[in-house]
């Protein structure tokens, strides 16, 4: 297994038909902005479900309005990108998608179907509360579709292989994709847990276990997407952007509780430190260095959890034992390293052994008569 290998995306979702130009940076930017409206609508809807559930009646709410306005804008723009390329692809609905956008178009259709199912669910069974909202089938399908829809610019960036300013839309799309599942994972988010601030007693160990689980799930949610970018286009600030986006999503829903906000700032500092260290390591060791991705996952996982615990300690004090506190940091580090190993490209099959060159037979020297010597 190799742990490096920056490459372009050649997956079916990124392949486009001949004659169809890829999306421009401006086109990707419009997709990101409309996806941000969709994400803001989902964030506001999560806030409403958390804080003013008693005033919500049915499906038609201002928060759903913002959510579906963002969806309509993103879906319409996605289909427009294929339609405007109909000159090179007369069957644009099949062949006109820019690289990375075909999957987004399919996701737009499934999002619409999930939205209709959510409408029927709300009107017949009522508004979901707590875990019911997180596990509602229509919400799960909406969330999965949203992830694929808002990450079209990310796949477009991977397919193009560009760096520099083009990285901004790619990383922004990645952050939106990571934020989307957060609304369904708040019950197990490290950015909302206060478990480390409570003493682990004989009857309170279950709460500590749930806190450890929250750290591991959050590490998985953040380190996994980070590594997918780091293996293709190492971009400074990706880790910090992911932490900031997901933490913002969780904190808005609960109106920025002070202790959790300080802890999130600590995690943001840890992620920024990981970004800086990884940038320096790439400058010194190169992008093809051994164990590059396991090291990247370990640094981000360990430092963001250590930073979060530091923020909690400063804001409210950490009452976990040193063994549990240190152990959760080690677990996050190991999980990040494992994810890095899984994200690494496997080494190709060994080629045939070189065939040794055939020995050239020596040509015996002809005898020369003594008289001619």
From TrEMBL:
<feature type="compositionally biased region" description="Basic and acidic residues">
    <location>
        <begin position="1"/>
        <end position="10"/>
    </location>
</feature>
<feature type="transmembrane region" description="Helical">
    <location>
        <begin position="262"/>
        <end position="281"/>
    </location>
</feature>
<protein>
    <submittedName>
        <fullName>Uncharacterized protein</fullName>
    </submittedName>
</protein>
<feature type="transmembrane region" description="Helical">
    <location>
        <begin position="324"/>
        <end position="344"/>
    </location>
</feature>
<feature type="transmembrane region" description="Helical">
    <location>
        <begin position="208"/>
        <end position="229"/>
    </location>
</feature>
<feature type="transmembrane region" description="Helical">
    <location>
        <begin position="141"/>
        <end position="158"/>
    </location>
</feature>
<feature type="transmembrane region" description="Helical">
    <location>
        <begin position="103"/>
        <end position="121"/>
    </location>
</feature>
<feature type="transmembrane region" description="Helical">
    <location>
        <begin position="236"/>
        <end position="256"/>
    </location>
</feature>
<feature type="region of interest" description="Disordered">
    <location>
        <begin position="1"/>
        <end position="23"/>
    </location>
</feature>
<feature type="transmembrane region" description="Helical">
    <location>
        <begin position="65"/>
        <end position="83"/>
    </location>
</feature>
<feature type="transmembrane region" description="Helical">
    <location>
        <begin position="293"/>
        <end position="318"/>
    </location>
</feature>
<keyword id="KW-0472">Membrane</keyword>
<feature type="transmembrane region" description="Helical">
    <location>
        <begin position="170"/>
        <end position="188"/>
    </location>
</feature>
<keyword id="KW-1133">Transmembrane helix</keyword>
<keyword id="KW-0812">Transmembrane</keyword>
């Amino acid at each position: 297994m190799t742990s490096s290998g920056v490459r372009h995306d050649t997956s079916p979702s990124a392949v486009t038909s001949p004659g169809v130009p890829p999306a421009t940076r401006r086109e990707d930017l419009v997709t990101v902005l409309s996806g941000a409206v969709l994400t803001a609508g989902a964030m506001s809807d999560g806030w409403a479900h958390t804080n003013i559930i008693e005033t919500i009646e049915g499906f038609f709410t201002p928060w759903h309005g913002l959510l579906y306005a963002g969806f309509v804008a993103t879906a319409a723009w996605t289909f427009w990108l294929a339609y405007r390329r109909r000159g090179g692809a007369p069957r644009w609905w099949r062949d006109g998608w820019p690289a990375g956008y075909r999957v987004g178009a399919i996701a737009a259709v499934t999002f619409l179907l999930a939205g209709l199912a959510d409408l029927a669910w709300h009107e017949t069974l009522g508004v979901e509360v707590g875990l019911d909202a997180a596990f509602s089938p229509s919400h799960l399908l909406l969330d999965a579709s949203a992830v694929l829809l808002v990450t079209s610019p990310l796949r477009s960036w991977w397919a193009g292989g560009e760096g520099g300013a083009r990285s901004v839309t790619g990383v922004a799309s990645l952050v939106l994709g990571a934020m989307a599942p957060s609304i369904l994972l708040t019950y197990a988010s490290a950015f909302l847990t206060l478990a480390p601030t409570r003493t682990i007693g004989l009857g309170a160990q279950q709460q500590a276990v749930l806190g450890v689980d929250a750290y591991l799930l959050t590490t998985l949610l953040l380190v996994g997407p980070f590594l997918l970018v780091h293996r293709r286009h190492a971009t400074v600030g990706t880790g910090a952007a992911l932490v900031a986006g997901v933490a913002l999503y969780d904190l808005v829903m609960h109106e920025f509780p002070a202790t959790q906000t300080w802890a999130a700032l600590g995690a943001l500092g840890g992620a920024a430190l990981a970004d800086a260290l990884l940038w320096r390591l790439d400058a010194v060791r190169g992008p093809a260095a051994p164990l590059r991705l396991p090291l990247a996952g370990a640094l981000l996982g360990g430092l963001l959890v250590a930073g979060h615990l530091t923020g909690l300690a400063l804001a409210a004090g950490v009452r976990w034992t040193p063994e549990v506190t240190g152990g959760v940091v080690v677990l996050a580090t190991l999980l990040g390293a494992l994810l890095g190993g899984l994200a690494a490209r496997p080494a190709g099959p060994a080629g045939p052994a070189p065939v040794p060159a055939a020995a050239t037979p020596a040509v015996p020297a002809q005898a020369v008569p003594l008289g001619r010597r």
